[in-house]
Amino acid sequence: MVQEVQRKEEEGAVEGREKWRQNISSLSVLTVAVLVGLPLWWKTTEVYRSPLPYSDIQNLAGQQAPPSLVYTISVLVLTEEETMAASFLSNLQTELANHTGGWVVFLQ
C-alpha cells in the first residue's frame, strides 16, 4: 500500500515536470514567433513608397498639353432589320459624344 502511494506520488511529480516542460516549450515557440515572425511579417507586407520628383511635376504643369491620340474603332452591328442597326449606331454615337465631351468623330 505504501509502495502504491509512493508510485502515485512519483507519477504525479513526473506529470508535473512534463506539464512544466510543455508550458516552457509553448512559451518558447510563441516568443520566437513574436520576436522573429512579427517583424518579418511587418517588413514583407509594407508598401514601398517611391520619392516623387516634385520639380519635374511642376515643370510639366507649365507645359502645353500633348497632342491628342486618335484611335480607330470598327463597330459591326448585326440585326435582322436595318432600322435597328441605324438606331443602335445613332444611340452609340450620342452616348459617346456625351461622355467624351464631343471628341468623337464617326465615319460611316
From TrEMBL:
GO biological process: one example: attachment of GPI anchor to protein
Q: What GO cellular-component annotations does this UniProt entry give?
A: GPI-anchor transamidase complex
Supply the InterPro entries for this chain. PtdIno-glycan_biosynth_class_S
Q: How does it sit in the membrane?
A: Multi-pass membrane protein
Pathway the protein contributes to: Glycolipid biosynthesis; glycosylphosphatidylinositol-anchor biosynthesis
Transmembrane region positions? 24-42
Record key words, sorted: Endoplasmic reticulum, Glycoprotein, GPI-anchor biosynthesis, Membrane, Transmembrane, Transmembrane helix
UniProt keyword annotation of Phosphoprotein present? no
Places the protein is found: Endoplasmic reticulum membrane
Q: Which family does it belong to?
A: Belongs to the PIGS family.
Q: Which PANTHER family match?
A: GPI TRANSAMIDASE COMPONENT PIG-S (PTHR21072:SF13)
UniProt-recorded name of the protein:
GPI transamidase component PIG-S
